[in-house]
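Example 3.2
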Amino acid sequence: RHNMPRAAARAAARAHSFAAHHRRHSSSSCRRSSSSSRASTSSSVPTRTQACVLLLGPRDDDLAACALKLADVAAAHNLRVFTLSHDDVDGLTRDGRELRLARGDGDAYALRGSGEDAAVVALDATDGILAQLGYECVLCLVVGGREVCLGEDGRGSRARRCANRAAVSGTPTVCATIPTTTQTASFEPCACALEQLVSVVLRVLPTKSPANNPRSHFPFPTNGRWASLGTAQLPMDDELARQVLDDGGDDFAAKDCWSLGGSGTVHVNDTAVEHTTPQSRRAALRDAFVEADIYLDLSVPAKWTPKSKFRAARPGVFWRQQRVQAVFDDEVPVDSVPTDRFGRTLPSQTVASDVRATDRDARFVRQLATERLLAARASSQPSPSSSTSSDARPLSSAFRVTKGVVVADDSPRGDLDAVARGFAAVVSVPTWPFAHAFALTDRVFLESLREDVATGLPSFLIDP
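Structure, written as tokens:
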């Protein structure tokens, strides 16, 4: 490798890296795409690549409603709208099995797989569905339906995981849900809000071809990203810089072969203070959205109307407790806390309800942290007559995992707070884990909370 010309070494290394990538990911994609070609009834495939918008979701009726809403918006940008429904199941298929594809009416398709499977199969730039049809996706819309993607719940939601897969492919993505578990709830409010958001988003995105699918990050993007580590944007002291940036003397074409672990950027050990402006941070956010290094999560209250407003938001503060119920073979109920003297009576608020909580809806909520603290104190003072917890209660034979009790706290610009007040919450979600080279810094992410006064949408989608 070291005797090769620099260009040849770079090409060989890139091919080696991509071959390794496809060994991990593309064996199943090839099988999936073979079924897609069998499913298509089209007599010809366009010879020239065209641009499109893709809608993914578990329900055909929701997809059809959104496609109808978005038809005029997409047509204004010469974009075709495809829909791909999938099974309402979890996970990503990794064992290489075939996922069958069926064609419905018009540009509607259905895949026997999860939402994550659908995102991968549709958007793969080599053998994916759209690639075979001769189209490139400039915007992916995950129509997640009726699912809570607020706060911490968003990380584990099916819709959000599907959206993340789409974004990882390099496709700009919007995830849209109504935060309810009532499957009969109307999806019309979400479709209306999505139409308004997409009309704004398409003014920001390139609509001829996606900017970053297939992904090409050479050199790494550095404006407002963790790839700027060691520069004035993200400075380090000298000792930390030596620890982080030392490559250990391994010069295996590292400077040429970015895909094999090259740093991707020039690091300057600079302790100067970063002087950025709100405009430059908004530009960094726009770049990240165009390159799918962030995506948008839209949570729409069930009673939202086209006259309602959006709210630039962040994940709200709430968590679930008391999710597990013990089950015993003898079915003898066991009171886990016979005398709970430390709980609190708190107002109960239904998410997206236009009626604020009052004392009439109050419920008793255990204070588990207080219970644990008092139990620890009690255990440190043994008594001859006391018994251990294992002696006091038998171990259950099974468990039921429930929705539990949701405990929430107010958080400025939290998505839960926004939805509870009737706003459609728009959260900018990082595609990559914290501190990933392509991830935005906190200072840039803070700018995502700045709103357009007229609409409430994040201003980086509107203001230059």
